[in-house]
Amino acid sequence: MPATSPRPKLLLFDVNETLLDLGKLQQAVNQDFKSEFAFKQWFSLLLQYSLVDTTTANYHDFGQIGDAALDMLAQALGQQARPKARKKELLQLITELPPHPDVVPGLKAFQQAGFRLATLTNSPPSTLQKQMKYAGLTDYFEELCSIDSLKRYKPHPDTYLTTCQALGVAPADSMLVAAHGWDTAGALLAGLQAAFVARPGQQQYPLAPAPTLVGTTLEDIARQLVSV
């Protein structure tokens, strides 16, 4: 950890892909659309159009955008749009995801070291609560924070700054932990510290400031933080 960075008091965790394994949802989307790239294309559309909403001062929750992105995916692949009931079945899977194997040991290590833990996700509160309950992670966090009340999606700087303010911690004393380069870039540019979890297939954004910490697992990040 850079000597110029203070030990953070608050850790904010991204949820989808960082804490939760999206493999079950990925398999279902790929099978339904008969393409090994369908899930990645759908998830990219979901993120892209969440940013369209934010930059145009519009707002639909993540589930609504996910539903629309399934229609766009079908169109892009030259397929028929899925019935509303089928789309609901696919989207429901995001609330039934297990944590990555390193998550519980990593969260325990953070707790034992005295860090405050909260989530910060683009998912709406109802989805977030179901996700955390299903994964057995609720009790590790003092707050389950979502961008929904602000109605701006990460990586808009206000999402990070408002959460820090709500939890009473200065941005410089807060650290986002995420497996997405766009998310760590957003946090760093908002004045937070950031730890990039290098999940398979995820990359840092080379034109953003370098993350404060980089590790392959939450346990790896925890070891680096605890040693400070």
From TrEMBL:
Gene3D superfamilies from the UniProt entry: HAD superfamily/HAD-like, Putative phosphatase, domain 2
GO terms, molecular function: hydrolase activity, acting on acid halide bonds, in C-halide compounds
Keywords of the record: Hydrolase
SUPFAM superfamilies per the UniProt record, alphabetical: HAD-like (SSF56784)
Signal peptide location: none
InterPro entries: 2-HAD, HAD-like_sf, HAD-SF_hydro_IA, HAD_sf, PGP-like_dom2, S-2-haloacid_dehalogenase
Pfam families (alphabetical): Hydrolase (PF00702)
Family to which the UniProt record says this protein belongs: Belongs to the HAD-like hydrolase superfamily. S-2-haloalkanoic acid dehalogenase family.
Protein's name in the database: Haloacid dehalogenase, type II
Protein source organism: Hymenobacter amundsenii
